[in-house]
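Table S7 (text form). Paired inputs.
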Amino acid sequence: MRLDKFLSHTGFGSRKEVKEILKKKVVCVNGKPEKNGKKSIDENKDAVSVYGEVVNYKKFVYYMLNKPKGVISATEDKLHRTVIDLISEVDQVPGLFPVGRLDKDTTGLLIITNDGELSHQLLSPKKKVPKLYQAKVAGLMTAEDVLVFSTGVTISGNEHCLPAKLMILETDVESETTLINLEIVEGKFHQVKRMVEAVGKKVVTLDRQSMGGLFLDSQLKKGSYRELTDEELANLRN
């Protein structure tokens, strides 16, 4: 990895800001001052220090993103903005990707990382990792729907979904809409929307609130992100 990229990835600013730091002769590699940002280093073996303090490189990073509408859950796309585009240059590291997908019009919690093993653990059907969604539904959800979902509903394509927990939060008889929470343990294509359609209603808005016990930070605005805390990461791994 180039030295300037290493410094940028470890929180010392943009490439331009890193260049200014290097000019000050305060960066050392293995004890020797280094001004050349293009210098190739081994981030796992070489000792890099700035102002005398050793800089530790993180192999994996974990971000909690509050996904906004209109952004796709992909690493790159020629036509649309992706969730990776929402990560600032300073926080970009090689191999970043979203853990699972949220539809273009779906908002809420999305984990961004470069840790493939954690992603596998969270997405593996065998693990039955719970995901909690809140949705506004066109149509009045009923106690009968709650029962149907609890036993497992069959969706379009004759796919059968595992039992899910449907919670009716608010019912507006006048507008014939319902606010619901739905907890599922799978990740079928458009699953929540197809489950609601299976009982004759339609999802109007959809927001993911939690995944694997990790809840979206209520202080995180749409399109914003932050690193997971050590406690949050430990809980996810468990």
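Next pair, protein 2 of 2.
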Amino acid sequence: MKILLVEDHEALGKLVQEHLTGSGFIVDKVGDGPEALEALRSTEYDGMILDLGLPSLDGLEVLKKQRARKDRSLPIIILTARDQIGDRLTGLNSGADDYLVKPFDVLELEARLRAVLRRPGARLEEIMSLGNLSVDVSRWDVRVGNETLDLARREFVLLEELIKIYPGVIAKDRLEDRLYSFDESVTPNATEAVVSRLRRKLIAAHATARIATVRGIGYRLLPGEDVEVD
């Protein structure tokens, strides 16, 4: 899952980003409201963590502008150092799904994030399956039959994206957007390397789902053997 973290406190933002990245999320971090709105325009996210006390454009304004867009389903958790009930209610009434008051425990933040991602209308499906392959997104768990398949973080994200869009094709540029945060440098062959590693692991585990390369476009999951599709 790809998350937009909007937090102007550098140390806190880095702490949250590192924790969520270690828990399997892809995290883009920005420090003010205009950057947040630009990121929302250019990138598809599965959820947003939004500090209310931002420079140049208040977090509440970012929240209202996002909810005014056509896609209003993005799960949003607001963070605030303001301990007055009115600020929290304003955020919730403006469309936030949940809130945390600073200081907070990053484990609680992760738990609340996963909870809003599982709500009806959100973008997190519990378990997706194809053949003997199953992906439990909420638990970051992949199984082939009854056996657990050990995947690195980007391999898991790749498989998640492929099985979500099955039987459709995911374009390579969109896949790169989902695999990497925008502050990471990406080599030209980085995505192909992740695909290759995941493909080998699926074959070694005798998964009935295979990764097909759609030449000039991207990738898709298919039942059966690996193929190239013109």
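The two ends are 30 Å apart (CA to CA).
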